[in-house]
Amino acid sequence: MKPIAISILAVLSLCVSTHHVAAQNTPTAPQPVQPPAQESNPPGAVTQAPAEAEETEQPGLFAGADLYYGGSNLAGFRRFHDGFWAAGSGLAYPSNVYLRYNNQSGAGAKLAVGLSQLYNGSTGFDQPVEAWWKQPLKSGKGSVTLGKFYVPFALQEWEFETKWGALYEGEWNATSIGAALVYNRNLDETNGYLRLGRNIKENINVGVSLGLGDGLTYDSVHDKALGFDLTASSGDWEALAEYMAARGTSAQRFRFGWARLNYNGWQRFKPFVARYDYKDTAGAFGRF
After folding, report:
1. Is residue 110 within 8 Å of 132, Cβ to Cβ?
2. How far are the Cα atoms of 15, 100, 126 from residue 152, in angstroms, in the given order?
3. 3-state class of 139 per DSSP?
4. Residue 45 to residues 7, 8, 135, 156, 274: CA-CA distances in angstroms?
5. SS3 assignment, position 269
6. Neighbour-count burial of 55, counting CB atoms closer than 10 A to its CB (0-12 exposed, 13-18 middle, 19+ buried)
7. Which helix (H) or strand (E) element contains residue 181?
8. Phi and psi torsions of 52, nearest 5°
9. Which residues are registered as beta bridge partners of 108?
10. pTM (2 d.p.)
C-alpha cells in the first residue's frame, strides 16, 4: 500500500492600504485572461491572492504580509513556516512582508521580502522574493514588467520561481499571452518562458506553455519544456489540471501531471483534493 501524505496549512494574510479618492472611477491596465492557481499575484502568475484581490482594482499604497504555518507527516516537514508545495514535496510559498503600489494610469510596483526558510539567502534563493515595476503600454495592448517576478508557465503548479528579467503580458478578446526573458543567476544562463491562454467558454480556460534555456526549472539539467493546462469552474466548484514535459538529452526526461478539485464556497476554509505524479529519468527530481 502506498503511503498517504497528509499536510495541514494555516494561512494568514494582512493588508493595510491607503487609497486615492478617485479609485473606483480610474481606468486600469488591461489584464490577461488567465485561470486560477497559486496564492500570489505577481506578474506572470495566473491569479491573485485573497489578500491582494482589492489592491489590484484601485490605485493606492498597500502594506501587507502573507504568513504560513503548518504540519505534515512527510519526513523533514513535520512543522513548517512557509507554504507547503505538494508537487515537489517541499516548501514553495514564502512567508513574506510586502509593499505594493498602483497608480491611476494602471502602472504598479511590488517589493516582497521573505521571512522564513525560503528566499532568505541561506537556501540558494536570493532576496527579495519579488521586486518589479509594471507599466501599461501606451498603445493599450498589454503591459511590460521589469524586475524580479514569477515566470509564466502553465498553472505554475510545478514551475513556480521568481527570476530577474522582463515580462510582456497582453490580451486579445479571449486569448492571453505571457512571455518572459529572464536571467538565471545560479547558472549564469538566459531562460525564456511563454504561455498562451484561451477562454473556450466563460468558465473554461486552456493554455499551452513553452520554456527554453539551461536550468529553466529549478536549475536542473533540462533545457526544454512543454506544458498544457486546463481550468474549469461551475458554481463553487473548480477543477484544474496541468501536464508538463521537460528534457535535456534523450536520456534526461521529466514529466509532471497534476489535477485538483477545489471547493470555494467557504470564505476562510479552502478544501481540495488533488493527485500529483512526476518522474525524472535524469535523477534531478526523482519520482513522486
Report:
1. yes
2. 25, 20, 19
3. coil
4. 24, 24, 16, 7, 20
5. coil
6. buried
7. strand 175-184
8. -110, 5
9. 102, 134
10. 0.82
